[in-house]
Design goal:
Shape: globular
CATH topology of one domain: Sulfite Oxidase, Chain A, domain 2
Strand order of the largest sheet: 6-5-16-9-12
Bound molecules: ligand MTE
CATH class of one domain: Alpha Beta
Helix content: 10-25%
Number of strands: 25
Strand content: 25-35%
Length: 399
């Protein structure tokens, strides 16, 4: 069927530059892949309130909505962290350019989508978790002021990613032994914060990590990446804070000197009274956490036995055990684990509780991993509210 004028206009638009979901809506047509009407947050996928809480351009997974899911988070419930909005990039127009002083040749090397897909692939389960996940508890639990999106515990998801090891792409591009850093950049819009243009989303990664377990992923849970999660290709940096996993990657600088961007200088470091004056070193690994799959303020009937469920995860090592407390942290007992703890994933757990006394109560869960990391009672404050790992006091009402 010949392309309609609108469709031709859209195809020209797609060929020229990535477009946003709203530009697509304005064109009044759809590209080869079916795209629903853009959702409120500048995402492509719908964000029904039973699955998502929208924070500006971001969408947090309602943690209790994971209750009926397995160890992998379905794409339609996976949180979205967008600095701007989701660009729609056709796979035929997409190119990855690898360039910089850390390559043998002086010329940039390009990869098309088909070239990448024809290279040997790997699959790996990995969590993507925002460095600011659980940030809101600095204020609500510790009475401390922090800046940034007030996530509860839903800025995390687990998926099976398939793609090409980044090391293979770097070697094919002519990686030199003098290279120290690489820096992937996204093809989404430039980020303007407080009137300052920070440029495209990009963050340096040491070559050692890039050569270890990083993937250039084109599939999520057995399907092509959804637009909101980086289609056609994104970086997946297992165990590291989510910002390292650059979506819609368009180029990768390879450098023989250390690289910098606002995302490893002004952002994603720990600043504040407890930290060095220039901030901590750039953040790398995520922490250890647990979450109840129960709405905040859930009503639970007194005198009845309830099977309560949740999830536990740690970036450093597999989960060893989860303890729960139903009396505000005085007594603790072990929850039953329902998955074999593995690096990269999370573990579902459950515990029985028969509440006796009516009124408000707090449910606590505390994860310990096999490296000995345990969730503390408090997280040391940092002004941007990163890496909250303390035990969350989950409010319920016994009726
Ligand atoms: N990559 C680009 N290009 N643009 C972005 O806004 N957000 C980062 C990272 N990669 C971002 C990005 C952040 S902060 C996180 S936590 C993860 O993507 C979120 O991935 P998701 O939206 O697929 O859940």
């Amino acid at each position: 069927m010949p392309a309609s004028p609108d469709r031709r206009r859209l195809l020209r638009l797609l060929a020229a530059a990535p477009v946003t979901a709203s530009a697509l809506a304005a064109a009044g047509t759809a590209p080869a892949r079916a795209v629903p009407a853009p959702a409120a947050a500048g995402t492509v996928k719908p964000l029904p309130p039973e699955h998502f809480t929208v924070h500006g351009t971001n969408a947090e997974t309602v943690f209790s909505s994971l209750r009926d899911t397995g160890t992998l988070t379905p794409a339609d419930r996976f949180f979205v962290r967008n600095h701007t909005s989701t660009p729609l990039i056709g796979e035929r127009d997409w190119r990855l350019t690898v360039w910089g002083s850390g390559l043998h040749g002086s010329r940039p090397v390009e990869f098309s989508y088909d070239q990448l897909r024809s290279m040997p692939s790997v699959s790996r389960t990995a969590l993507v978790e925002c460095a600011g996940n659980a940030r809101s508890y600095f204020a609500s639990q510790q009475g401390e002021t922090v800046s940034g999106t007030p996530w509860t515990l839903g800025a995390v998801g687990a998926a099976r990613w398939r793609g090409v090891p980044l090391r293979d792409v770097l070697h094919r591009a002519g990686l030199s032994s003098t290279a120290v850093d690489i820096m992937p950049s996204g093809l989404d819009g430039e980020v303007v914060s407080g009137g300052v243009n920070l440029g495209r989303v990009r963050r340096p990664l040491p070559v050692a990590k890039a050569l270890d377990d990083v993937i250039l992923a084109y599939e999520m849970n057995g399907e092509p990446l959804p637009y909101d999660h980086g289609f056609p290709v994104r970086v997946i940096v297992p165990a590291w804070i989510g910002i390292a996993s650059v979506k819609w990657v368009g180029d990768i600088e390879v450098s023989d000197t250390p690289l910098a961007s606002p995302w490893n200088t002004q952002l994603y470091r720990l600043f504040g009274a407890a930290h060095p004056p220039g901030g901590s070193a750039p953040l790398t690994r995520q922490t250890v956490k647990s979450a109840w799959e129960l709405p905040s303020g859930a009503a639970l009937e007194a005198g009845r036995n309830h099977r309560l469920t949740g999830r536990a995860w740690s970036a450093a090592a597999p989960v060893r055990h989860v303890e729960i407390s139903t009396d505000g942290g005085v007594g603790w007992r072990r929850a039953a684990l329902h998955d074999t703890p593995r690096p990269g994933g999370w573990v579902r757990w459950s515990a029985q509780w028969c509440p006796g006394v009516t009124g408000p109560a707090r449910l606590l869960a505390r994860t310990t991993d096999t490296a000995g990391n345990t969730q503390p009672e408090r997280t040391v404050h940092n002004t941007q509210g990163y890496l909250f790992d303390a035990v969350v006091r989950h409010p319920v009402t016994v009726v």
